[in-house]
Amino acid sequence: MRKQPAMHFRLDMRGLFPHTFSVEASSHNLPSLLANPIFVSGALSIFLAQVLKAILAFLKRHKLKAKEIAFIMLWKTGGMPSSHSALVVSLSAAIAFVEGFDSLFVLSFFLGLIVIRDALGVRRSAGLQSKALNILGKQMSECFNIAFTPVKEIHGHRWQEVVVGAVLGMAVSILVCWNYIFHAVSSSLQ
Description:
Order of helices and strands: HHHHHHH
Radius of gyration: 24 Å
Number of strands: 0
Shape: elongated
Number of helices: 7
Helix content: 55-70%
């Protein structure tokens, strides 16, 4: 039996993914990432949502310490506005403004819907259930003198928090991508 020679294929990826080859090789660094309007839009929207969350928490409880404010800005989930919805709406909108309504937009849109649905439904329900378990556990602990360790309460979002986060994300992406929007509108009018 004769051995078959190895077959070598060369696939020209430029035909499959033309937008990925429009980036120069020297642009794969931190300054190019910080100049990318999609990245800036997402990062700025999640940052602003967390800052607003910390400001609202401070206005609600004036006796917050710097450590508590830092915790809110870095790790707190739940609350007004939803940083999850701000991020995913901002990313989807920025992708639409910069790249158009291509496959990347479709992917970001549907993954964004999953994230928002999770923030509204699953995480909120889990948070309410863990809160009820902690109340029940505390009562059982007091009644029967048994040890109880509370479970972590995950905070989901109410629909109002999601809507405000989405509006924030859209506003940030419009501000960051305004030149792409202006160019698209002006070229369509010609």
